[in-house]
Amino acid sequence: MRCPKCSYNQSKVVDSRHADDLTAIRRRRECEQCGARFTTFERIELAPLIVVKKDGTRQAFNRDKVLGGLVRASEKRPVAFDDLEKITNEIEFQLRESGKNEISSVDIGERVMDELMKLDQVSYVRFASVYKEFKDVDQLLSTMQGILNDKDKK
């Protein structure tokens, strides 16, 4: 592993443990030349997931985009980052377990909204307003009324 400080290509592993989601190994390394310490992650290489977007274009699934959308929707809300990571991990797990190589962006968006609805309704509305491309306040109010109706039924 190449040192990020001096680019020397020999390092030793100082500590090794599972990452939080148990799908990766976190390794603390020390450069044998300059002594700098750095962290690396080792993950299982999985078959790529392809996202089919609304316009028909295809691109590789990027879990960071899902997590980024969750973070933006939850800004200034009492939502822990760990919860957003758990949602991202769960969605990625569900997509991989589906056995499909191509997943529609609509399917991903619906899964994100389902999970956000359980976690924080304000974050859900924020995400939905961007995802569903609300054209006016009436569409937003309609969505919020649906949330209130669901809440009353429980």
From TrEMBL:
Cofactor note: Binds 1 zinc ion.
Membrane spanning stretches: none
GO biological process, alphabetically ordered: negative regulation of DNA-templated transcription
Needed co-factor(s): Zn(2+)
GO molecular function: ATP binding; DNA binding; zinc ion binding
UniProtKB keywords: ATP-binding, DNA-binding, Metal-binding, Nucleotide-binding, Repressor, Transcription, Transcription regulation, Zinc, Zinc-finger
Zinc finger (unnamed): 3-34
InterPro entries xrefs: ATP-cone_dom, NrdR-like_N, RNR_NrdR-like
All residue ranges annotated as the ATP-cone domain in the record: 49-139
Coiled-coil boundaries: none
Keyword Membrane in record: no
Origin: domain of life: Bacteria
PANTHER family according to UniProt: TRANSCRIPTIONAL REPRESSOR NRDR
Family recorded in the similarity comment: Belongs to the NrdR family.
Cited function: Negatively regulates transcription of bacterial ribonucleotide reductase nrd genes and operons by binding to NrdR-boxes.
Protein name per the record: Transcriptional repressor NrdR
Species this protein is from: Macrococcus equipercicus
